[in-house]
Every structure is written in C-alpha cells, then in structure tokens.
Amino acid sequence: MRLFAAAAALLLSTAVTAQTINYPKTEAQPLVEDHFGIKVADPYRWLENDVRQDQKVRDWVTAENEVTQAYLATLPARDVFKARLKQLFDYERFGVPVKKGGRYFYQHNTGLQNQSPLFVRDSVNGPARLLIDPNIWAKDGATALAEWVPSEDGRHVVYAVQDGGTDWRTVKVLDVATGKETGDSVEWVKFSNLAWAKDGSGFYYSRFPKPEGAQFQALNERHEIYFHKLGTAQSADIKIYATPDHPKWNNVAEVSEDGRWLIVTSSEGTDDRYEITVIDLSAPSSAPRTLFKGLENNWGYVGNTGTTFYFLTNKDAPRQRIVAVDAAAAAPALKEIVPQDKATLDSASIVGGELIAAYLVDAKSEVRRYALNGTARPKLMLPGIGTAAGFRGEAGDPEAFFSFTSFATPTTIYRYDAKTGAATVWAQPKVAFDPADYRVEQRFYPSKDGTKVPIFIVRKRNVTGPAPTLLYGYGGFNVSLPPSFSASRLAWMEQGGAFALANIRGGGEYGKEWHDAGRLAHKQNVFDDFIAAGEYLKKQSVASALAVQGGSNGGLLIGAVVNQRPDLFAAALPAVGVMDMTRFDRFTAGRYWVDDYGYPSKEADFKTLWAYSPYHNVKAGTAYPAILVTTADTDDRVVPGHSFKYAAMLQSKDIGPKPHLIRIETRAGHGSGKPTDKIIEETADLWAFAAKWTGLDVK
Predict the structure, then answer these.
(1) Would the pLDDT of 409 be above 80?
(2) Given 151, 552, 613, 643, which residue is catalytic?
C-alpha cells in the first residue's frame, strides 16, 4: 500500500459508485512482533492513536467517512428508512419512577428529543414538573443526563453529566424545590454508584485519579470511594475506602435503606466475582468488615433488616439463589432463603416487606414473590412474553414500579402494590403501529456440538415465506438478551424483513454454566452457536438472506463469524467491536475483559485469541459479504482503533467486490447517551445497506 497522504483533499477526490469503491489508501507499516513463536503483523497500529491528538488519524477518519457517505447516498432506501424511523421514534417514553420523600422522580421523552429530561411529581398522578433538561446542554444533543439519584428526603438530586458518549462523568447536585444547581461538582468519576447518606448531608461516589496523558485511552486503575459533603469543594472530599494492594480492583458503594450500613462491592474484571465489605456508619470509628472475601462468587446486595443481609449469589448455585447472613455474627454463616431453581434468577429486591425475584425462563421474564423467610407467594402476572425490570421500591412501602417490554410492545410502566400483589398501568405510550400485526416465536435449534440454543423470531403476520432476515447476537460477559422493543428493528420488519435474536452461549440466560461455556478457551462455542443460528434460519425457510449485527463484544462476534463463514451471510454490521484480540487489554476498560477473553500475555490464552481475532484472520482470496463497520471517534470503552484497524485490513485484502466500509460517528461514544437524531441517521444507513445486500424490497 502506498503511503497515506496527510492532505485529506487528496483522498476525498476518490470516485465512488454503487458498483466500484476506491478506498482511501491507508499506510501499512512493516510492524511484526513475535508472540510465543507466532509472527504477528500489525501494519495499522498507528490507527490506535487518539483522533483528538493525531492529525494523521483524523485525516484518515475524514477520508473514510467521505467514501462511506458517498456510497450510502446511492441507496434510495436510506431516505425511506429515515423518514419512517422519525415517525416510529416519535412516541412518549417513560423511565421507571423512583419514590423518595413522597416525591416521584422519572425521565420522560416526548418522542424525538435527543435526550430524556428528568421530571418530578409531588404525588403519584400529580402534575409533572421539569427538573433537568439535558437537551439545552449542547447544540448537537450529545451531552446526556447519565446516572441520577434523589436524596432520601427528596430535597436534592445528585446527577451525572456524560459528554460526547464518554464513560467519564461530572457529578452535580440539584435543589429540587428551586430547580437550581447547588454548586457542588465532582470530576473524574467513572463506573460509579451514587449513594446518598441517609440524612442527605452528602453522597458517596467512586473515582479514579486524574489521568496522566491520554485521558480517553489510559488504563483505569486505583478506583476509590469518597464522600462528598454538600456545600464543599471536591478537594475536601473524604476517602472512605480504597484497595492500594489491589490497584486493579473497582470499588463501588451503596447505602442500606436504614442508613446504617455502607456496602462496598469490590471486583477486578467483568465476571460476577465480588468481595463484600460493610462499614457501620453509625460507629465512625469502627473498621470495615469483609463479609465475603476472595472474588470468587456473585454477591448481589438485595437489602437488609437490621443486621440480617440478603444477597443474590451463585455460590453453590450456578443459576443463583437468595441467601441471608447476619453481619453482626462473629462468624457469619449463610442461610438459604430461596433455593436455586431450573430457571435463572436474574435480580431481586425487597419491596413492602417481601422479596421480588425476577427470573429468566428460557430467556423470558417471570416474576415470583416470597416472604422474607422464603415462603412462596402468588406470582406476579405479566402481560405476555417479554421482559420485566425495575421493581424500585422500599422495604417499608408497598408501592413500587417496574417496566415491561416485548418485541412488539414499547416499554410500559406499571405501579405495583405489594399488599395486594396487583399491578396497574402507570404510563403506556401510544405508537404509530399496531403491535397485533406482529408475531413472536421462540424456537430451539442445535448448535455444532448438539447444544440446544433458544432463538426468538419476529416478523409481520403476513410474512410467511423466506424473507431477508436481520440476525442479532452478543454471546459474552454473562449478558442476557431477553425480549425488548426497538423502533429501529420495527422499521426493518415493516418492510417485510424478519428479525431473529439468538441467545447464544457466553450470555447469562441459563446462569453461570451457560456463560462459562462461551468464554476463555470455550469462546469458539459462541461463534458456532451463531453460525448454527444462521444455518437454521435458512434451512427452516425463515431467511432468504442474512444480515448479521452485533455491538461491542457482539461486534467481535460478527467479525469472527464473517471470517469463519463468509459464505453464509449477505451483509454484516459489526458495531464498536473488539477486533484486535492481542491488544485489547492495553486501553481504558479493556483490562477488565480478561475474565471473558483471557490474557494476551499468557501463551495458552494468546493462542486461543489469535485463532479468532477478527483483525488478524481476514482471509484474502475469499468472497466476503458486504460489511459496514460502525464506531465513534471518541469511544473510550472499546477504543475506535479496534474498528479503524479492522476496516483498514478489510480494505487492504482481496475479499471480493462487495463494499467493506466504515461509518465513524463524531462526538459519540460506545452507545450510552447517543442522541436520538444520531440513532435515527445511523439506523437508516445500516438498514439501507443491509436491504441492498439482502434483497429487501423497500417501498
């Protein structure tokens, strides 16, 4: 490849048509390293540099976007999808309310607002008052309201500002009565809970030290818990808890409902393996006490009554159970409250003196109720096949709220009464389509090794024969993919396309064993499961052609399966993917991912990673599907260098005449906080591209 020209104008003169694409000429450097006897070429490492700091990378981004946008402009379906997506997104969206001090706090988007404002009501059905409108924070709509928590008395809200999609947060405080900021401000907050002291005097948070050098690429270490007292400068904040002997540990805090205890959860990676420490806030001189040591099991704090603490755990229960422990005992012992079930226990909370336990039954929600001693009570009836979440409430208050959604049902908010076990609609959006027009099926298909894998198939009722199908997957980090509504996917299905969601191994749908079967040395199972899903959809005459999509770890999934079975797919849409498996642990949060991927510095792990690394396994001389890579120039979760290098490698290889493009969003991150208008524009591009190469007839 000839040397990349620094002057972008030389690259932007490239002619682009729907048939022939002349990609920008990307400099390939002769960089080869030896890893355990394997010669590893990395010709595009210079694309790892931060676009904000490196003009050469910035010019490359500009050139690639110019070519991609010129190609997308040739697709007439783009405008059709964009117009319809605006209509489909134009519906009210409500968040699950949080009740504090007799007030109800919740987010509400009227439809096409880029960000969802925060509102408050003084009674459950009273008039709403606007508290925070993030839409006025930035002209491009890319500054978002992230985490927020009301104080116990409902007088203040502590909230986090997320700019341009970054994981970094600036934390501020709002006076609810006046609607004005108090002047409190905390910086360098990341991967943090926000937890108020019971008396409202201040809040606990977690932060990293101010980064030295590249703040958006540097590794994150020394995560520490601080207390910020209202009305003081951050420099006066008190360090509450730190683990200097374990600089890679994350430490986050929450305050018990009675205000007496600070519960500290420590972790090192992405696995549900935690150490739990409690601090008695009623006795400031008392030392922190570790209840569960060793980062061996999941310990999800559910709540407490006095010194009796309830936890959700996978200790001796891969599909999880609920246990209790007396924190005051000299030698705390576990007492089983709710035993492991065939279904997977996903979450639990205490509301109105009872346990609310949300289960996944073949990836669908089921909500069960128990007394605090474990006695079963009648289940909470749900509207259908879908996902219930939230159940925000307090142990002494029978009122709580939860959300329910499904593939054709936008998120509806329900008010739950623990005394009666009844749930009533609190907020239900009106939409520009009829949910009854769609049918949802769940099937099970065999993977390569015979494992049965669940898959959801959604399409319009009048679509009966093979159709262009969008197949989505993730397969990692114990993340489950239950049913959920997506206006974006609806636009695809309205045109006669089908949507399929494969609950492949690596996720948490069937607990720890399902996760373990798709990580580390077993990662190939994830790819086999997804490939088998594609084969099944074609064999069963669901799919006439396949477009495959996944983001983050799912972007890695798409990159890997395209390399392994390029013949199976017509189009591929890998988003913000982890594409260089030999260097992922060197940037920002990448070091956490060794729990799922392994250590590139260890020989056995490296050889596993090397075998499927998307960047390193592009096969020249093989016809590839059409590929549209998407990322954001300021993503500091999976740094965009992964996608930049992968796209450059695709474009450098002889892999057939179909387009292999990259779409790079500006002032956006890993996905969180992305404004509505950018979501609509990106989705229109993706669907137009996928429609072109799957044969979807867009009208």
Answers:
(1) yes
(2) 552
